[in-house]
Amino acid sequence: MRTVLLSKSDELYLEKCAQENQFAYGIIVGHQADLTKSIVVHLARNNEEDGDLEDINDVRLTIADVNSQALASQWLSASKMCPGSFDVIGIFVSSIRPDVAVDQSSEIKNAKKLFSDVYDLLLKSNSSFGVYTTDIAQTDYVFLSYSLSDKKVLCKNYSYGNGGTFSNMEHRFVDKPFEWIQLDSSYYLDDVLPIVDISRRINIEDQFQNIIKAMRKNLLASEVFLQNEMVEDTIDLQTYIKKKKPKGDRLKPTTGGGTGSSTPGSTTPETLPMISSDGGVGAGDSIRASIVLPVKCQLSKPTDIKVREYNGTLRMSGIIATRIFCSPRNSIADVKRFLRDDVLRSLITRIQVYCDGLTDPYVTNEALYISEPPRRVFFSLPSEGASTSVGAQIQFSEYLFRGEAPTVAVAQAKQVLDVEIDPEAISGEAEGLPDDSNFTNGNQTTDSTDDSRVLPSSMPKPELSRSLYMVGIAVALLVLLASVAVHYVITGR
């Protein structure tokens, strides 16, 4: 039977939600430790103003009153902020009413319908839902209900299909802090894809979907190295770390070898961190991973290699910073899958955020179109959440366009994850801003007689650019008039 592990802080949070609001609901962010155990990483109350719940303090409110749209929206937003080793694994409800935690009650029937509605909304509103993973798709979810009146918790396993079914699930509050091991990688993108669309007006979003498909194919064919070494998939992460050196010794930093060459679409070796032989990772340290792709022609059958003429090409260039947090019990196969998932999830999220801001997704095939998706920034959960874990401090991420302030991530963390974070604590060093020469080079190679254009997302919109242009002309005219006036004052004519 599947078991859900919670910390004491999770129990305090459920109690707090019921005390403050009488009735509250939200999402569960979790981690799959093994085939039978899921660890609750974070509980996030839904803070969206819900028109259906006019008074959240009304004790008469039930699960039937919950807005499935608000939950689905929070679910999607949180999924984009989670590292590849974490997922939104379910829904929780906290109430002062005792029947929310009673099996076979009407509330449990309402919960099953709520889960089914949320799942349907997720499938309809997001084509990437369920396709984030490069290997194993999530099929079972958690429903957790807490009653403040008798401090009782009920946990159910939800499986989608045939209207959705609930089955029994165990839960356990763990006194011992959860241990997390951090793994980092930098995935370098430098690839070219053909544009096969023969239309004169090309849909940019469709081309981005082709990028996702190509990336997923490449990641499935990739190999992952830890500390520049090939590691067996069958052993767990704790065993791998203990095997590095005898107890009492430490793995000294060295420069990586040739396993992580600068192949387009792969990672490159970097200096290795210090790892203690007792299975833990030193404060601020992490295991360095490299994702290496095979030669591209190896991914194709000989019959698939053809010489063709295309209307255009799509070039991807940049760095995806990857950071995941794993349990010592995770197998190396799981660790590799989490790393691949993190790269794919980060790419999909950037594309979704970028496309959401497009006013017109079409561009002519003669155009030179340069896009700058948002960069990834990381932030840790508040100290009270961090105190329930040892080893690495878990982090979530947000995506900021050039010029956006860290306060954007602060607001998103409050709205989606129900946490207060300090703008100064947001780390934006993992991914630097792109070189402006990319845009300048684009302008230099553009023939002014063509219908070509350069439109990076971070640059001002056309309306704003025209306004700045007119302001520039006005300033120039004022300077000219001032020069003429000074000339007349000095010369007297």
Automatic annotation (TrEMBL):
Quick one: where is this thing mainly located? membrane
The record's region (Disordered) falls at 246-272, 428-459
UniProt keyword list: Membrane, Transmembrane, Transmembrane helix
InterPro entries linked: ODR-4-like
Q: Where in the cell is it found?
A: Membrane
Q: Which domain of life is it from?
A: Eukaryota
BP terms from Gene Ontology? intracellular protein localization
Residue spans crossing the bilayer: 468-490
* Pfam families registered for this protein in UniProt: ODR4-like
User: What does the entry list under GO cellular component?
Assistant: endomembrane system; membrane
**Regions of compositional bias (Polar residues) in chain numbering:** 437-447
Recorded family membership? Belongs to the ODR-4 family.
Protein's recorded name:
Uncharacterized protein, isoform A
